[in-house]
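Narrative summary of target 7.
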Amino acid sequence: MEIFQLNKSVLHVRNNAVEFLNGLTTNAMDKPWNAFVDIHGMLISVFDQIVLNEEEVMMVLDKTAAEAVLSHLDRYAKLSGVKIEKKEDLNVCFDLEGNVPLEPQDFSIPQKKGRLIITKRKLTANVSGEKFTLFRLRNNIPQQDIDFKREEFLLNISEHDHVSYTKGCFLGQEPISKVHNRSKPSWKLVVKAQDECSNEEKAKMTSKIADPATRRTTGFVFVSNKD
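Modeled conformation, tokenized:
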């Protein structure tokens, strides 16, 4: 079992939570990953989600983004009667192999490989930051505030991971749909070997680390998507 402790906040949204979030988020509510954007399609935060029922949803997001999300949702929540609570008693870990035994009160969210575990338990982390970075690179799992920032156009990060093009109207839908249907994002976030990068790309590379398997240094970098 391999466990990495994440610096995440958990928000509990209740009182008609699914309908409320469906109009404010970019992805369908039955998907594990979602995002909040502004009216221009610029990122506020990506997050992982668990729909408990039509009334309750749990969102997992970086602690650095929690206040921005709460501020973004505040006026909409007041108008709709939705309640949003930060769950300080919950811990979030990354289960790299997906084989940590769960207890009845635990929650999990699938990732591209492995899963998140949301729990009140204190699970013992046994994976270093360096090993987790290598894991993320090998499985194309970028992290907000490390590999991409707020106010990045969402489709530059990924054109499909956090977006539904069939769910109906949502805040920021118009610019996102226009780019998807009429052209393509200007940039694309990829995993790339440093020796294949331009000098400009090398300077902007994030999560850079040497991969023992290939003996090459790799990292995340935004590359032009014009070709």
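The chain has a mean pLDDT of 95.
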